[in-house]
Amino acid sequence: MRDDDGTHEPLAGFTVGVTAARRAEELGALLSRRGAAVLHAPALRIVHLPDDGELLAATKELIDHAPDVAVATTAVGFRGWIEAADGWGIGDALLETLRGAELLARGPKVRGAVRAAGLTETWSPGSESMAEVLDRLLTEGVAGRRVALQLHGEPLPGFVESLTAAGADVVVLPVYRWMPPRDLAPLDRMLDVTAARGLDAITFTSAPAAASFLSRAETRGLLPEILGALREDVLVACVGPVTAQPLQARGVATVQPERFRLGPLVQLVCAQLPASARILPVAGHRVEIRGHAVLVDDEPRAVPPAALALLHTLARRPGWVVARADLLRALPGGGTDEHAVETAMARLRSALGAPRLIQTVVKRGYRLALDPSGDADSGR
User: Fold this and answer.
1) Helix (H) or strand (E) run with residue 18 in it
2) Residue 153's domain spans which residues?
3) Residue 218: pLDDT above 70?
4) Cβ neighbours of residue 5 under 8 Å, at least 6 residues apart?
5) What is the total count of domains within the chain?
6) Residue 2 has pLDDT above 60, yes or no
């Protein structure tokens, strides 16, 4: 949990959900390197569409209103688009439209597909990075320009939003469609963990993923619990405002980085989550509650889930007595026997390594032994 300089990694002790289908490994690695426990469950899957009404309509509209810039993102997607247009009898018209535009190709494979179609790219990044393509467009200036984007599977995190924010008229060509994942088990597990307030943050990199996440919750009858968790206890981080719209429409507050990319998204989570940690002066000790981890005098303590649930409940009103019945309701899965509270409390005291942190109030319940100098009233 500590960096080389002895300080804690910013996300140590926190669990962060990743819902992306594309670039999930990259996002997960960025979070893990900063100490987070990452739970990944793709909220959608990408299906290639060789013949689709939405793509046909978008292609005809593009031919009628030619773009200033066209961005080809994948070789297979670009080839599929040209082949589909040929099948619809508008292939020549599409090629002529693209010849009149500034054509950007992401990487050598895409460049090869562009040239195979009889076109010549204006520019291609050496890094094969869409971030470099975006930088070029923003540096050139896109205000008032029409930009056609052949979609790259799941909508590119922040790409459309950045161009729109800079004043571009962006036309997306949906060569793929987004469907629910074939295996719903990982998504269902993430929903269960979210409903149980087991996530500290969840990330979304596309509006379809956010909509799919909420739709699956509704199908399972978990939507009220999910919305409650997202509104109250889980930091919801979106790559940009378009991605956030399905969540905000449900009354969920979200945070977005100023630059709509994965790196700034992770930086934002690193800034926001540690600020949510509870730091309490208890019985002469410094107790810090960071998501699923607890530090006592800066030393990490392994606390079992049931015991941690009790600590979170006590920390909501430090110094106040919490009844056994309220603690029982806080246990994962609930329960009917208050003996379960006593067992979990014994484990909590043992895990913290300082039994006097928690006081037993006879016939009433338990409380954190908040120091008199603490912010909360410890005399109740």
Assistant:
1) strand 15-18
2) 47-178
3) yes
4) none
5) 3
6) no
Q: What is the mean pLDDT of the chain?
A: 87
59 plus 157 within the same structural domain: yes
> How far is residue 322's CA from residue 254's CA, in Å, rounded to a whole number?
31
162 domain residue, yes or no: yes
Q: Are residues 247 and 258 in the same domain?
A: yes
Phi/psi of residue 201, nearest 5 degrees: -150, 155
Residues 248 and 165 in one domain: no
C-alpha closest to that of 45 among 69, 21, 72? 21
* Closest to 217 in 3D by CA, of 19, 28, 355: 19
Nearest to 243 by CA among 211, 268, 209, 206: 206
Of the residues 227, 254, 275, which one is the last residue of a structural domain?
Answer: 275
Say yes or no: 32 and 155 in one domain: no
pTM for this model (two decimals)? 0.67
Tell me the HSE value of 116 on the side-chain side, using a 13 A CA sphere.
Answer: 13
Cβ neighbours around 251 below 10 Å, total: 9
Let me know whether 37 and 60 are in one domain: no
CB-CB contact of 147 with 169 (8 Å): yes
Q: Say which residues have a Cβ less than 8 Å from residue 165's Cβ, sequence separation at least 6.
A: 260
Q: pLDDT category, 378, cuts 50, 70, 90?
A: very low
Instruction: Please state, in angstroms and rounded to a whole number, the distance separating the CA atoms of residues 125 and 222.
Output: 45
| Domain end marker among 123, 144, 178 | 178
Torsion, Cα of 368, 370, 374, 378 (10° steps): 90
Largest alpha-carbon pair distance within the chain? 84
Measure Cα distances from 317 to 215, 321, 332 in Å: 35, 8, 19
